[in-house]
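To whoever picks this up:

The parser on our side crashed when reading a file containing two proteins. I've narrowed it down to the boundary between the first structure block and the second sequence. Both blocks are reproduced below exactly, byte for byte. First block:
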Amino acid sequence: MNNNNNNASSFMIAGLFTLALRLVTGWTYFSAFWRRLVLENKLDPGGTGYVGEKFNHFLPNALGIKPIIEYMVTHPESLWWAMAVFTIIEGIVGLLFMLGLFTRLMSIGVFSLAMGILLGSGWLGTTCLDEWQIGILGIAAGFTIFFSGSGKHSLDYWLGSKSLKLTQQKWFVWLGSGVLPIQTKRLHKIVFSGAAIILGISLLTNQYFHGGVWGTLHNKSVKPKIEIAEAGIDNDILSFSVFRVEGADVYGSFLIGITLTDINGNIILEKDNRDLAAFPENNIANKYVASVKPGKHSLVIPLGARAQLTIRDNTLSDLPAGNYMLTLTDISGITWTKSIVF
């Protein structure tokens, strides 16, 4: 009896010590629901800040789940449902985690949501490792509170104090709170092993996304980078695809120049910022939810956007066969090139 009382006291104190961690972590997930549906409607596909477009930003450098993201952003209806369900789950998990109701089940939810954030967007963050930190700390918090439970300041404890039949079930301690039926020696091994694995995930992802363990540090969220593919000339039509794979997610790359030159550097075709601001939308074939589109002073290419661009010009109709160079110029002065042979 004494041993049982000591165990109960130990878990109660552990839940007390992790109270602030539970409340703050729970709010980080509930606040996503609050921001998207209460403060603003970010589930409107036609609205500013649509969460599906932000999800598209994860695509270029996601780890392990890129095919899932690509499927979603190429199927807008499925994407909307996924974002709606994801938002509701975040709201439920975050709220119940703060309230301490079915705390251990919610901690599994926190762990899973954090893992998704880490793998999908752990590479994002302009001034620091924003998304990586959110993801890895969420994983650690979910793991920790699964073992500590929620302690006295929780609905789990309140339900238990009422001696409800629900709380007397063997499964309740695994989904709620209370003394885990695991021998102390074995519990030490499980927790140590889990912590070591989480540390390994931390180091691996930190290195993969940012080079943060050894070698050269890098931040893919600072400068825009565009990949050019499928470039070709057919009669009087120049076509090529653009895919924005790096740079800040909060604003696009502003394309102010498209130039085609021959092998001697002579300009064959040139479009400046005014031409690109008036670029015909019919000549832009967007593949994903994040869309390339003409802006006020340039052609705007959001992070994660992929599109086929088509330019028709009479100067291309009589070009001799040979090597040509396509150059794209960003407003920052960065340029990207692609060789065209026809």
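<<boundary where parser fails>>
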Amino acid sequence: MSRGGFPGGMGGFGGMNMNQIMKQAKKMQEEMEKSQENLASQTFESTAGGGAISAKVNGAKELLEVKLNKDIVDPDDVEMLQDLIITCINDAFKKADAASNAEFGKYNIPGL
């Protein structure tokens, strides 16, 4: 007589029962939250224009600081200054993304 459900009982989960699966999921969630907090507390810095511009962001992808050397400010070439600022900030965010990918890549969860 067939009872339906999973063939072989809960053995379809690699021999683990649902409580073990839930415990592992909870542990992984706690580890990921710690990783996220650790990453958010880190800062990532970039410079552009030979160090005339610097930007700092955190792992939560918040812009913390932008510094401009007054010598880089040329009222006749505002476009260059804007481009350097964008380049500098984007590079800082790329560094934060790389750290995030390195941190969360170890969890190997499809879709993340």
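After patching the parser it read the second block fine. The helical segments are 18-41, 78-104. The first helix runs from residue 18 to 41.
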